[in-house]
Amino acid sequence: MAAAEGLAQGCWSAFWDYETPKVIVVKNRRLGVVYRAVQLLILLYFVWYVFIVQKSYQDSETGPESSVITKVKGITSSEHKVWDVEEYVKPPEGGSVFSIITRIEVTPSQTLGTCPEVSALLPAGLRTGRCVPYYQGSAKTCEVSGWCPVEDGASVSQFLGKMAPNFTILIKNSIHYPKFQFSKGNIEHGKDGYLKHCTFDEVSDLYCPIFKLGFIVEQAGENFTELAHTGGVIGVIINWDCDLDLSASKCNPKYSFRRLDPKHVPASSGYNFRFAKYYKTNGSTTRTLIKAYGIRIDVIVHGQVNQPALPTRDSGRPRTELAQPLVPHPP
Q1: Which reaction does it catalyse (predicted)?
Q2: Percentage of residues in the chain having pLDDT higher than 70
Q3: What is the DSSP letter of 329?
């Protein structure tokens, strides 16, 4: 019983005790210089690296919501006709991916029937099992049933790229960052008729997104004549990196251009596609097969926006715990 009373009195007495850490002032100039230097380095780390370089006080969002509308204008000609935009742009809807035809190989007046096969590696129909004379010479080849004459046996090449470098391409882009409710476009506002009299210039006309096709190919480091003959894919990259610490007027698009398809792979270099035009002749279906070589434009939009974030209880806690000055205690 006495032990219990002694324990209770000890706890009651300890409850009213007050403790405070003992502070020792070390009068040592060398140790003081080291201590203050470490504090200064920690301060510089937070001010310069964390806040200025890394901008860790900001919140960010990548991958903006984006819409792209394109429109091509220009007239060109081949050996046999004049071509307008309705004929050489595929598809015509004006999206972020489209092709401008610069050369065609035409196989005219194809009808369903039988004819000599051109290449066993590129079958153009079903083999009938008969051996027939080739288109030229005394050699023979397999007969096929399909659209005749087959491609490459009677195709005619036409070049459309003579005037193509002067084609103009309007690339209208709007972006939206939903996290920060921030939106912007790449066309100058408040100037009536501005787009009718301008072309893109990075310094003087940044908000006139009208590019000449020759300019795009040149900026991608390609030879236009060579590219027009073989075809290829050019990427127009629009980058929106914005810092909302600054005015919205400082958030500007940055354009870059580069070739996207494997140029130096002979087996798959270039770009082409096929389509056909059908019509009736004396009650039978006839078609013109067109193998089109062209410059495909892919408009790619990406970016990141940064904005000051509200501080939280845990903001900077890991860095603070690691940043305690390592100064030895005196003995």
Answers
A1: K(+)(in) = K(+)(out); Na(+)(in) = Na(+)(out); Ca(2+)(in) = Ca(2+)(out)
A2: 87
A3: P
